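Hey team,

Filing this mostly as a record. A colleague (T.K.) asked me to run one chain through the structure pipeline before their review meeting, and I want the input and output archived in the tracker in case anyone asks later how it was produced. No errors, nothing strange. Just documentation.

Input sequence:
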Amino acid sequence: MPLSYAIDRRRRVVVARASGLLTVDDAVRVRSMLQSDPVFRSHFSLLFDLREVTQVNMSFQALARLAATTVFAAHARRAFVCTTELQHEVAHAFSLVGREHQIVVRVFREPHMAESWLVDGRTPERSHAAMVFDKGLR
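Output structure:
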């Protein structure tokens, strides 16, 4: 499966990893699996690792529907980890549609920075990598 997840119950984080082609069907399938997973709690944070995604078949409207029907609580933090412009565009689009639903999203280049923000609540220092993503990969 190009999209999978694991739950770290102790740290209250769902770690999702996508690779290859990312589709809305994959996202809906994993969301359904999470809903039926007895370990999952809606207040857990999400670390979504997109670093191995090479293609995306998901419209802006599909992202909006996913944000509107999320299984996570509105206050649950979501961290996306990206290294390419395509991955960043998807994460940024989700953050835009998520604002309407008070979804808190940050985009990171490095997983350890994302984990610090999710688990410890620390906002990482404004590194060069974070600033590149804040401005977009141009």
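Quick notes for T.K.: The beta strands are 3-8, 13-23, 45-57, 77-81, 104-108. Residues 116 and 122 are 6 Å apart (CA to CA).
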